Amino acid sequence: MRARIDDDLEEAVRLLQAGRVVGVPTETVYGLAANAFDPAAVVRVFETKRRPSFDPLIVHVRDVEAVHEVATRLPAAAERLVERFWPGPLTLVLERRDVVPDLVTSGLPTVAVRCPAHPLMRRLLSRTGFPLAAPSANRFGSVSPTTAQHVADQLGDELELVLDGGPCEVGLESTIVGFQGERCLLYRPGGLPLEELERVVGPVPTAARTPETAPSAPGMLTSHYAPARTLLLGELDELVAEHAGSRLGVLAFREERAAHACRVLSPSGDLGEAARRLFAALRELDASGAELLVAEPVPESGLGRAINDRLRRAARPRS
Ligand code: TXA
Ligand code: MG
After folding, report:
1. Which residues line ligand 1 (CB under 6 A)?
2. What stretches of 70-170 show up as alpha helix (H) in DSSP?
3. What is the distance between the alpha carbons of residues 13 and 126, in angstroms, rounded to a whole number?
């Protein structure tokens, strides 16, 4: 099977209704979607992604009201966040309803829910009538896709259709928050900056790894979002000098470096632009024939937190 890359909404609806898996666009990254209420369809997502089943999926809903189809209640802080940031790059971990299959939540009492902003994805969700369970459309542990072509390159042989919604506008996965009573906790930094969350609900501490947040696994697994080549993260000019003998792939924030291959995330230092380019740049460097990738952290504010988080995980030694 070779996936078609197409904006054929009707075909996507038909496949999803038939229990198939479809690559779908969102504003953050592309997803690998299936009917969230159909366990057999959800199994195919895990198989296609080669994802361990202890790692729960995000359920995508068509609008704010539809959250109640999968979650029992929203803490007041969640209500405020939904009102302010949905549709958008924010996922909430909420108490689940029983209709959500155990497979989607890995048997947890909670479900991760998000209302995506991408117009084509929103049309798709309003046409299917059921929510879509979707992880990022990459093989487990590798870099998330930000174009339909990225999805087809990695998973094309196992999919019939990648619904093409153009390049992702945010480029980083959603920010994930959970709740402890009324307290809001950060599970994964992402496409919605922490500062913006905190303006609405006050301080949002990072969740400790506890059994309840353990599924924080993947997003929090040490080696994740990783390119195939080894990536070193640090002071760029030092790394370039130290490894001058290797064919280097360089991922720079603002300034180009002489190397076998170099990608600059944002010459003007714009973190939104850097986020948008990050995953495509990692893929390009990985495919450039470089033996070793080197990268530098970006300023640790706004979207910079999530960019640095992904770079740190991409850079961890692989096991
Ligand atoms: O932007 C995004 O969030 C993209 C697009 C496709 O929506 N999706 C995405 O999914 O990044 P994925 O599966 O790659 O990451 C979902 C994260 C995982 O780290 C998972 O452990 C966490 O969400 N998660 C899901 N359900 C959870 C739950 N009940 N409690 C805590 N974490 C949960
Ligand atoms: Mg992922």
Report:
1. 26, 28-29, 31, 55-58, 91, 93, 105, 108, 110-112, 114, 134-136, 173-174, 176, 187-188, 213, 215-219
2. 76-85, 102-105, 119-128, 148-155
3. 10
Distance in angstroms (rounded) separating the CA atoms of residues 105 and 137:
18
Tell me the pTM: 0.94
Sign of CA dihedral 80, 82, 88, 93: positive
Q: Atom 10 (ligand 1): residue with closest C-alpha?
A: 135
- From first to last of its 319 residues, the chain has per-residue pLDDT tens of 689 999 999 999 999 999 999 999 999 999 999 999 999 999 999 999 998 888 999 999 999 999 999 999 999 999 999 999 999 999 999 999 999 999 999 999 999 999 999 999 999 999 999 999 999 999 998 899 999 999 999 999 999 999 999 999 999 999 999 999 889 999 999 999 999 999 999 999 999 866 545 554 445 554 567 888 999 999 999 999 999 999 999 999 999 999 999 999 999 999 999 999 999 999 999 999 999 999 999 999 999 999 999 999 999 664 4
Buried b (16+ CB within 10 A) or exposed e, 115-132: bbbbebbbebbeebebbb
**What does 5-36 look like in DSSP terms, one character per residue?**
EE--HHHHHHHHHTT--EEE--SSS-EEEEET
